[in-house]
Fold:
Amino acid sequence: MRIALGLMLLCVGVSVRATAGSDVLEGRALTFPGDYGSHAEFRTEWWYLTGWLKTEGESLGFQITFFRTRPTVDVDNLSSFTPRQLLIAHCALSDPQRGRLWQDQRIRRAGLGLAEAMSGDTHVWIDDWSLEHKSATYIAKILAEDFALNLSIRTTQQPLLNGRAGYSQKGPSPLSASYYYSIPHLQVIGNITRDGKSDAVHGEAWLDHEWSSQYLDGSAIGWEWVGINLNDGGALMAFRIRNPKGESHWTGGTLRDAHGTTQVFQPHDVEFQAKRTWVSPRTGIKYPVQWHIRAGSREFDLKPLLDDQENDTRLSTGAVYWEGAVSASEAGKDSGRGYLELTGYGEPLRLR
Structure:
C-alpha cells in the first residue's frame, strides 16, 4: 500500500453527480501484462518505484512515483476541458553525503499527449517524466529542476501478490481495500545528474502498483509502510494504518522467503514499534524514523539512510510526508535494504 496523495484535495470544480469508481472485490485474479497498466475505472492508482543506488563512492536512495486519479464528474458535462483523469508525479534522491533530499513534483490533467497513463502495460508520463515497461525492463526518465534520473530497471522475480491473491484489505470493511502487487529485487543501472554533474549508478529497487476506489475508512488518519529487499533474495512488505489516537487500526503484510514461499500476514501478525523520532526543521513535524517491526515470527530493526527524508508535495497534493531509504537488520545482522513511508503525522491524511 502506498500514499495516494494527489487524490485528497484536487479542487477541480467538478460535480459529484457521477460515481467515483469501481469497487475492489476479493476473487478477481490479477493477470499480466494487462494489470501492469492503468485501470481508469478506479478512483486512485499509483506506481511507486523506490530503491538504493551506488556511485563509485556513495550510497543513495531514490523514489519515482506516478499517481493517477479519476475525479468525480458530472455525466452531463461534455466539455473537453473537464478533467477525466489527473496525473501527478513525485521524485526524490536521498543524498546523505550532502545531507539533503533532492525532490520535485508535477501535476497535469491527462490528454493532448502531455500526460497519460496507458492501459495494457505500464506506460505513464507527464511531459518529459516517464515510466515505461518493455518486456522484462522498466525505463524511468526524470528531468527535475536541479537533478535527473535515467534508469534501466530489470525484473528478476515474478510479481508478489499482496493480501489474498492481490486483494489487500485496509480496514475492517471488505470494501476498504485495493488491488496490490509488488515487484522486489529489481536490478538497476543508469545515471543520475545533480547540479549538472553526472554519475553512473547501479543498485536494487522495489516497485509497487496499487489501485482502488475506497482506500481508507473514516477511522484512519495515516500509516506506516515498508518494503524491504532481503539479502537472501526474499522480500517483506508490511504496513500499519493508524487511528486518531495513533494506535493500530489495521495491519497487514506479505513475506516471500528465499525459497519462494509466500506468507500473508493477518492483522495480529504485524506490529510496529517506534524507537527514535526526528523533528523537521522546516515543518516542525515529528516523525518516528527508526522502527522495530514484527512480521509473523520474524523481527526487523529499521534505520534511515538519513533522517531528513521529508517530502513536501503541497504544490501538487497539499501533503507533507516522510519517505526514505532504510536499512534492515534481523537479530543484529544486516538483512536488507528498502524504503519506509510515514503519512498523517502533520495532519490526518484524507483520501476522497
In short: The longest strand covers residues 177-194. Confidence is low (pLDDT under 50) at residues 1-19. Residues 31-342 form a domain with the AttH-like fold fold (CATH 2.40.370.10). The CA atoms of residues 166 and 180 lie 5 Å apart.
